[in-house]
Each structure stands twice: as structure tokens, then as C-alpha cells.
Design goal:
Helices cover about 45% and strands about 15% of the residues. It is α/β, with parallel strands linked by helices. Helix 3 links the parallel strand 2 and strand 3. The protein is elongated, with a radius of gyration of 25 Å.
Length: about 400
């Protein structure tokens, strides 16, 4: 049991409490009754990211020890909107979008969790929240005071700044906490920004005469920008279904990570010994990124794709052309380079395209287009590779060829 607690602490910022967790793990082993490990996910975006994977990896550890994951898809709480970390009202999502996102979540978490029925139970909190009547809602609201809810950091800051706080936002922690009551959670996982909500679930369980859930919160994975929490809305994310290669591929995104993030990514997303990780980063941050990218792609895709992604990345960095270049069909004939950049999606406008040409960042079949030739036309009468920088390629194919 001590070894299990130590393994969990690698990815945990706080366990409430380690002593009680050890007792429950021992009791579960003696009785043969698995613990129920809750993780809630509101489907506010279509992609599961590496940020989600941090608590998911702890859930997987519990599964490997014989316990049962209970994944709560917050199809109803997403309609309220989690105010955690928000300094303004969260934009409302339409029900159809939430439902579509929820379907993708279930598919994507299968890359991380064991999905056999004895290891995973997937629930939608609309099952019980959607059946509540007004008396039920008032009863749930009566379990917390306004003072207690406003003590939460994000609420207290908004209150002090006179930023509006809507009543439905105050309701969110109670709804999330009620999920724990309904599914009899023994342990709830979440990012460290979920600590308040997780403890509300513990208190609500105790108020119903149940054994309060234990809480494990994890550090928030910083996004690829190096400053903010990984988030689809901020565009600083790596998705678990991102392709291994290509524009926006997993390998390239990892290679662009700031060096300062490497140790936390290795700590939270891999099981590599940290002493070895630190030595590798100190010796060569670039090589450490290559190794991290290959490990993540092997985990979420395949070892073969990891090797191919590495090969293609190195080829691109050396000015070569990768094997799997996407194709774009265009009219046969003469084209100005700037128009080709726009058609390929490498530039959003002629002015942006001209800037890239002046920077010398554009090649045709590996040959750089010099700034003085930026306005000359190019004959496209055969498949031709257009390249921007070291990582963006498209094969221009004349119609009818």
C-alpha cells in the first residue's frame, strides 16, 4: 500500500488524506470490494487533451490495481458551465454541441482507460440531474450558504471586483457534488482547480449519511504557450487524437514546447525515473523533446507512427520533403507564388503571403524562392511540392494529371 501511495503522489498535488487512502486501499484488498474512482468531465469542447490525461493516468493506476473507474460525462453540468478559473460568465453552449462533444469524449478516453465493464462505468449526470423537480433543487441549495460558496477564490475575486456572479454559477459546485452522492464515489479525481468542488461532494455525501469521498487533485498541465493552463479555447493544447505528424501534429507540437516545461510533462505524463529525466534534459533539451514526443505518440498511437514522425520531422528540419505530403488539386498553368500560399492555406491573405516570400520562407520542390522572384509566375504542369518553413508542405497536383 505504501508503494501505491508513493506512485500516486508523483502526479498528485494533494491527497485528502494519504492516511485514509491507505486504510481504504487495505480494506478493499481484504474485502475484495473495489473502490469507485470518480472523474467528471464536462464536454465543453470536442477534444480530450494531454491536460485531461494527468488525472486520467491516476484513474488508470487505480484500474490496474483492480478498482473501478466511474467516468461522469457532465452533459447537464456543462449546460450550467463550470465557473472555475473564470473571471467572467462562461459562454453558453447549445445542447446539440454538448451532446456531440460528449460522444467524442467517451471514444477518446478509451485511449487511456481500461474499458471492460468491470473496470469502467460511464454515466451521464443528466440521468439524475434531469429528473430533479423544484423541491429537489431547493433542497440541494439549502445544503450550502452563500458565504461558503463565495469563499471560493474565483467567486471571491469576482465579488471584490464587482464582476457579476449569476445564481446558476453558484449552483455548479452543488451539482458536481451531488454526482458523488448518486454514484457512491469513494475517491474523486480532478485538477487542483477542482478542489473546492470535490470537497463539496465529500460534504454532501457525509450529509446523506455516507462515507465521504477522498479527494486527489493534480497539478494543471501548462499548455504549449508555456504560460497558461492547457485548453482548447486558448489554442495551446495537444489533443489525444492529434495526428502524429503533419501540420498541427503531436510530434511538432512537443518539439515546440518551451524547455522549462519538459520536467513537468515527463513527471505528469510518463513513468520515466525523474533522476534520469533531469539528466537527459540537462544534457540536451532537444533530445529530451524527441524522446518525449516518441513516448507520447507510442502511447496514444503506435510505436511505428512514433518512429515515422521522428523521421519526417528530421527530414523537414534538414530541408527534405516528407513522404506523406497532403495533396491539393489546382488549375494547370501559371500561378503567382503568393496565390499558391493562399490557396494552400499557408497564408490568410496576399499581404501575409508576400511577407513570407520576402522572409525567404517559401520553397518550390525544395528550391527557395528568393524575394526578388516573389512576383514571377510559376508553371504548375506536374505534381509540385510547395513548402513553407521547415514543417508545412503540400503537393500541388494539376487537374487532369
Amino acid at each position: 500500500t505504501a508503494q501505491k501511495i508513493e506512485a500516486l503522489q508523483r502526479r498528485s498535488e494533494k491527497i485528502i488524506s494519504p492516511e485514509e487512502l491507505a486504510k481504504r486501499l487495505d480494506a478493499s484488498e481484504r474485502s475484495g470490494k473495489p473502490l469507485r474512482i470518480k472523474l467528471g468531465m464536462d464536454p465543453t469542447a470536442p477534444d480530450v487533451t494531454l491536460g485531461h490525461c494527468v488525472p486520467l493516468k491516476i484513474v488508470r493506476q487505480f484500474q490496474d490495481w483492480g478498482h473501478k473507474a466511474v467516468l461522469i460525462i457532465g452533459d447537464y453540468t456543462a449546460r450550467v458551465g463550470d465557473p472555475t478559473g473564470r473571471n467572467a460568465l462562461r459562454p453558453k453552449l447549445e445542447g446539440e454541441q454538448i451532446d456531440a462533444n460528449a460522444r467524442t469524449y467517451v471514444t477518446q478516453v478509451a485511449k487511456i482507460l481500461r474499458t471492460e465493464p468491470e473496470h469502467l462505468e460511464v454515466r451521464y449526470n443528466g440521468e439524475w440531474l434531469g429528473k430533479m423537480n423544484m423541491i429537489d433543487v431547493i433542497g440541494l441549495l439549502s445544503k450550502k450558504t452563500v458565504d461558503q460558496l463565495l469563499s471560493r477564490d474565483d467567486f471571491s475575486k469576482r465579488f471584490a471586483d464587482k464582476t457579476p456572479i449569476f445564481l446558476h454559477e453558484l449552483f455548479y459546485p452543488l451539482l458536481q457534488g451531488w454526482d458523488s452522492v448518486v454514484i457512491d464515489a469513494d475517491i474523486e479525481l480532478g485538477g487542483n482547480d477542482q478542489l473546492f468542488n470535490n470537497l463539496v461532494g465529500r460534504e454532501l455525501q457525509q450529509g446523506e449519511g455516507k462515507q465521504g469521498q477522498l479527494v486527489i487533485v493534480t497539478p494543471l498541465l501548462v499548455g504549449t504557450d508555456g504560460t497558461m493552463k492547457m485548453s482548447k479555447s486558448k489554442g495551446n493544447y495537444i489533443g489525444v487524437t492529434d495526428p502524429a505528424t503533419g501540420d498541427g501534429g503531436m510530434f511538432g507540437k512537443v518539439m515546440r514546447l518551451p524547455d522549462a516545461l519538459l520536467e513537468s510533462y515527463y513527471t505528469l505524463l510518463t513513468d520515466e525515473p525523474l533522476d534520469e529525466v533531469r539528466r537527459a534534459i540537462a544534457a540536451s533539451p532537444r533530445d529530451a523533446k524527441v524522446s518525449l514526443a516518441k513516448r507520447l505518440i507510442t502511447w496514444l498511437h503506435t510505436a511505428e507512427e512514433a518512429q515515422n514522425a521522428h523521421k519526417q520531422f528530421e527530414t523537414a528540419m534538414q530541408g527534405g520533403i516528407p513522404d506523406d505530403v497532403p495533396e491539393l488539386e489546382i488549375e494547370k498553368g501559371e500561378h503567382k507564388p503568393v496565390m499558391l500560399l493562399v490557396k494552400a492555406g499557408f497564408a490568410t491573405s496576399n499581404s501575409e503571403g508576400n511577407r513570407k516570400l520576402k522572409e525567404g520562407a517559401v520553397r518550390i520542390d525544395g528550391e527557395k524562392i528568393s524575394p526578388e522572384k516573389a512576383n514571377e509566375v510559376i508553371m504548375i504542369d506536374r505534381p509540385t511540392v510547395l513548402q513553407l518553413g521547415n514543417r508545412r508542405f503540400v503537393r500541388l497536383v494539376p487537374k487532369g494529371s
